[in-house]
Design goal:
two-stranded antiparallel sheet, eight-stranded antiparallel β-barrel, mainly beta
Length: 249
């Protein structure tokens, strides 16, 4: 699949040397909301009833910053390569513990992504509408903080952090948008969707400044002293709105 995609992309780049093409660069900012949400964490609400609550969401929700380079082979067809930084929202929960205390939990996340896409445009006198479809290659990181912990019950362990990193995430992206027509410096607005999930490759456990790192594996048949099992897939799917400016040259 990857080989075919890159072969087609290389072919499209090559034929642009034979036609009159228009290059462009763009930059934009936006905000994304959770989409195709999955389980983030299961928390206990109270000890007496044993009540558990599933908390759903996506680590893809948050601010988005983008920059792209592209080329329109014809007025209606082109492609671009988009680089983005997604700063995920802080997700906060409380978990009931056996000593009649609620333990605060929080997650922070971010990723760098690269998305090659094809573009189809419909031009008119004032506005140009377009759709984009492509794939996403992302490098996420998630940090889970547990605490601060009550020293009366947890002794000298004041805070625990779990950091997940490593491995490339692969997904799909799509956008629908509009921009001003017939201008060198144009403004645009677009609605985008990203379908993305991630399986981390590394895990670091830290408390009171002491850390232990593990390599995450899919099978427990050959675990070494610094290996652990992949906990699950983490959801990063999101949809949102981006506003920006594009320069055609």
């Amino acid at each position: 699949m990857f080989k075919s995609f890159f072969t087609i992309s290389f072919f499209l780049f090559s034929i642009t040397a034979l036609v009159r093409a228009q290059n462009f660069v763009s930059a934009g900012v936006g905000y994304n909301f959770s989409a195709a949400t999955d389980l983030i964490i299961q928390t206990s609400k109270n000890q007496s009833s044993g009540y558990l609550e599933n908390n759903y969401g996506s680590f893809g929700q948050g601010a988005d910053f983008r920059a792209a380079f592209g080329r329109m082979i014809t007025p209606a067809f082109g492609f671009e390569v988009d680089v983005n930084y997604r700063a995920g929202n802080k997700l906060e929960y409380r978990n009931y513990s056996d000593n009649n205390r609620f333990v605060p939990l929080s997650y922070t996340s971010h990723y760098w992504g690269v998305s090659p896409s094809v573009i189809l445009k419909v031009n008119n006198n004032l506005f140009t509408s377009y759709i984009k479809a492509g794939v996403v290659f992302a490098f996420p990181q998630i940090n889970n903080k547990i605490g601060p912990l009550d020293p009366t019950y947890y002794g000298n362990i004041q805070e625990v952090t779990n950091e997940y990193s490593g491995r490339l995430a692969f997904g799909y992206s799509g956008s629908i948008g509009a921009e001003l027509s017939a201008c060198s410096l144009c403004y645009f607005a677009e609605i985008n969707f990203t379908a993305l999930s991630w399986k981390p490759g590394k895990y670091k456990y830290t408390y009171n400044g002491a850390s232990q790192e593990y390599t995450l594996k899919d099978d427990n048949g050959s675990l070494g002293p610094n290996d652990s099992i992949v906990p699950r897939m983490f959801p990063f799917s999101a949809f949102g709105l981006n506003l920006g400016v594009k320069y055609n040259f």
